[in-house]
From TrEMBL:
Organism annotation: Faecalibacterium butyricigenerans
Residue stretches making up the Peptidase C45 hydrolase domain: 118-377
SUPFAM superfamilies registered for this protein in UniProt: N-terminal nucleophile aminohydrolases (Ntn hydrolases)
The keyword Flavoprotein is annotated on this UniProt entry: no
Protein name as it appears in the record: Carcinine hydrolase/isopenicillin-N N-acyltransferase family protein
InterPro entries assigned: Ntn_hydrolases_N (IPR029055), Peptidase_C45_hydrolase (IPR005079), Peptidase_C59 (IPR052193)
Keywords from the named record: Hydrolase
Length: 399
């Protein structure tokens, strides 16, 4: 009799524990089902190679929303700490601390046409060895699907280690907030580039009006999610106070399939009077009003300010001027025409940092990407492995 009673008690306890486990599983899935689906998509595309100073390359496909509408509706963020607080609170429900940072980056980009008439946007990301991820998002609710590239060190992940543990992978859920470049399904592409304004590696832009706030990389996310054209991207940027991250400063290039492009710069009066980031104003250099461009058919950007008169009479160094002149000369020779996406990639390879004569810390081109704005496709090469199938990846939007 006692054995039967004990057996019944044990069965009840087992049933109660099973019910508790199921309830917890249901609660976790209800709370984090999009995040769990996203983490399940995480995969490595290529391995680290220290001999070539390669980081690993990963791919993440985001499921559902990532709270960006909520980020905007609560006023955005005026600094990194506010952005980190929002991401931690929204994505991990405050349980797991998140990290977001940026650093000194170089980079080159251009727009051109292919012989078949497609518009392309090519971009090199120059930095020290680091892990990267190609990120796909499709949040719905009237927002665009997109592909973008992120540097995983910006999320607090070690640049010299693989992303392996569940804790490390969980940090990648903040990836939509730190794009370096990308393309959306409206054929709008954009990229971020150091501009070295002010002292040292730059004085951050920190505009102060009654507009809502946005940070460096979240401005790119805003454009990727909402812009139907370059004009839309510019209009969106004009609605916010920009606050650059990590004691650095940046400018941007945006392009679309119509052939329209623009460089967005927040500047003071000139290079000698640009140490107060709060006093800067947005200046837009359209491809048909860019005084440094030879033609409306292409546009180039590297790491110096292009606003006319900015460097007149100053001793400030124009960072990346040598790469700028090389790309400009190549496009001038062909009237802004490249044969195809592979030829656009060849042009990026010509200023790859492992072979380009440079003496700064950004000694690697971490990734090179050609966005076809006409057919909404992506040609992506990691760590200057140009022409190598194992390091070359292609993606397609809208099909």
């Amino acid at each position: 009799m006692k054995r039967n009673s004990l057996s019944k008690l044990l069965r009840r306890i087992a049933c109660a524990l099973a019910a508790l486990v199921i309830a917890l599983a249901v609660a976790v899935f209800a709370l984090w089902h999009n995040e769990l689906t996203t983490l399940a998509s995480f995969q490595k595309l290529s391995d680290r190679d220290e001999a070539h100073r390669d980081g690993a390359v990963y791919q993440i496909n985001f499921s559902g929303d990532y709270f960006f509408d909520e980020f905007l509706s609560q006023g955005g963020a005026s600094n990194d700490a506010e952005l980190i607080s929002f991401v931690t609170r929204s994505i991990t429900k405050g349980i797991i601390p998140m990290h977001i940072k940026t650093s000194s980056i170089a980079c080159s980009a251009f727009t051109a046409d292919t012989q078949s008439g497609d518009r392309v946007f090519g971009r090199n990301y120059d930095f020290s060895a680091t892990n990267t991820a190609i990120v796909y998002t499709d949040p719905g609710e009237g927002r665009h699907a997109s592909y973008s590239t992120i540097d995983l060190s910006f999320l607090g992940l070690d640049a010299d280690k693989d992303v392996e543990t569940i804790g490390q992978k969980f940090l990648t859920l903040a990836a939509p907030y730190v794009p370096l470049d990308g393309i959306n399904d409206a054929g709008v592409a954009c990229g971020i580039f150091m501009s070295y304004q002010g002292e040292g590696k730059g004085t951050p832009t920190d505009t102060q009006t009654d507009r809502p706030d946005i940070t460096s990389t979240t401005l790119l996310r805003l454009i990727l999610d909402y812009a139907d054209s370059v004009e839309d991207a510019v209009a969106l940027a004009q609605q916010y106070d920009l606050h650059d991250s990590a004691s650095s400063c940046f400018h941007y290039m945006v392009a679309d399939s119509t052939g329209r492009s623009a460089i967005l710069e927040w500047v003071g009066t000139d290079a000698d009077h640009d140490v107060d980031g709060a006093q800067r104003q947005l200046n837009v250099l359209w491809n048909d009003t860019d005084a440094l461009s030879d033609s409306v058919d292409w546009q180039v950007v590297t790491n110096f300010i292009k606003t006319p008169g900015y460097y007149d009479g100053t001793t400030a160094e124009r960072k990346g001027l040598d790469r700028y002149e090389h790309l400009t000369a190549a496009l001038r020779e062909t009237d802004g025409i490249v044969a195809d996406k592979d030829a656009a990639m060849d042009l990026l390879a010509s200023v790859g940092r492992r072979t380009w004569d440079n003496d700064d810390s950004n000694s690697n081109t971490v990734h090179s990407v050609v966005y076809d704005l006409t057919d909404k496709s992506v040609l992506w090469v990691g760590n200057e492995h140009y022409g190598e199938e194992a390091y070359t990846f292609e993606f397609q939007l809208g099909r």
